[in-house]
Design goal:
mainly alpha
Length: 136
């Protein structure tokens, strides 16, 4: 499997949280696209790579130990300074459709563990995502 760039790893994580509930919602896909198009970390990213990164995620999630391989692949590619960014954008994608499935919550919990994000920092990031995606 090809080595991922840091941006590829961020895209893979967003796709991962989106497919963790076995259904990719339009709101989540639109949110991923908006994040890639607007965040400075993606300024030099070739958005055409998103489809191939998505395919890698789908393939890994179909394997028996695919989640472990997935997290190994993305954490190898992701610099530590982007760990909180990764968690924040995944929280935004999970919240984009207005509901968090148990599988999405478990994925986020595992991601917190893999990225060693302090629980207090994670709570602040989660609260921000909730506030950004609140509806009337």
């Amino acid at each position: 499997m090809a080595e991922l760039s840091p941006e590829d790893a961020l895209v893979a994580l967003m796709v991962g949280v989106s497919v963790s509930d076995a259904a990719i919602r339009t709101a989540e896909l639109v949110n991923i696209e908006q994040i890639v198009n607007h965040l400075p970390v993606f300024a030099n990213y070739d958005a055409d790579r998103m489809r191939s990164i998505g395919n890698i995620v789908f393939e890994l999630f179909e394997e028996e130990d695919g989640l472990d391989a997935f997290f190994g692949l993305v954490t190898d590619a992701l610099p530590e300074k982007l760990y909180e960014t990764a968690y924040a954008i995944c929280c935004d994608v999970a919240a984009a459709d207005g509901a968090l499935a148990q599988s999405e919550l478990r994925f986020l919990e595992e991601l917190r563990h893999e990225l060693e994000i302090d629980r207090l920092h994670a709570a602040a990031i989660e609260r921000g995502a909730r506030a950004r995606h609140m509806t009337l």
